[in-house]
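Q: Hi! First time doing this. I have a protein sequence and I read that you can turn it into a structure. Is that right? Here it is:
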Amino acid sequence: MKTLFVADLKPGKEVVEFFVLRKQEIRDTVDGQRFLKLELGDRTGRIDGVVWDNADQIYESAQTGDVVKIKASVTTYREMPQLKVERLRKAKEEEIDLSDFLPASERDLDSLYDEFKEVVSSIQNLHLRSLLELLLKDSSVAEKLKTTPGGKLWHHAYVGGLLEHTLRVVQICEKAASMYELVDRDLLITGALIHDIGKISTYSARGFFDYTDEGRLIGHIVTGDEMIDRKIQMIEDFPSDLALRLKHLVLSHQGQLEFASPVVPKTLEAIILHYADDMDAKADAFGHIIKTQKSKGKRWSDWVNLINRYIYLGEDEEAEE
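A: Yes, that's right. Below is the predicted 3D structure, encoded as structure tokens:
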């Protein structure tokens, strides 16, 4: 078991510990010296590393995604902590506990899955419920639903994140369905339950979350649409109009063509689902940044490249005291 995590690393500290090898690249300095640049991580974060001696030998000793044991010292480079690695080896299977490296939901995964099934049982439309039940009977779908993250880095990036995100989107959509009389509640909630179903095939979790080949080459929206279409074909007399409206929810939920949606929302249910999905994703991402970066004397986050802004962290704790 790990006892020292990335979040604990301070300049001057000596480290003998396990980390996941997220990246490695042989580089040359301007004067021709070869060195190995690393990115190491665990469930609490990531940190850069550098190897100056035996760079080629160490590069060959492990691959990206492996859990490795290192001996290093924490230094500073460009005002950021960095590990100066002296030794590195691939960890043995019996030394690895993936819970040390993959962040996980604070909620029980079986409880989340039971909640998902309860929502499925609330669907009154027999065709839509049959579709959802077919998905849950697929063992590969059911198991991956419990472990897949909601995102790689930006939102719900932890084991169980997809289920948490899905259920929150369902809650928002339930509220919207009760507010707007023209909404087809069963259609909207079914769309909320499966809008991100393609992510079970587009993310992998070894020592860290990454895209699968399918995730990079096709993407979760198209993958999800294909998965749903295959199940629809198994249901006798599934109404073609209902299938079109449901598939539209999945295909349009990102809201804009430049965000990988093949179409923009064109139904009442689709526009509600898009904003519910967007709101929960952004709220979770903002919350994560606030929780991980808030500290005494710090009122604003670091610059967030993805949304081109700083995020207000709240009142200065030191000033409040």
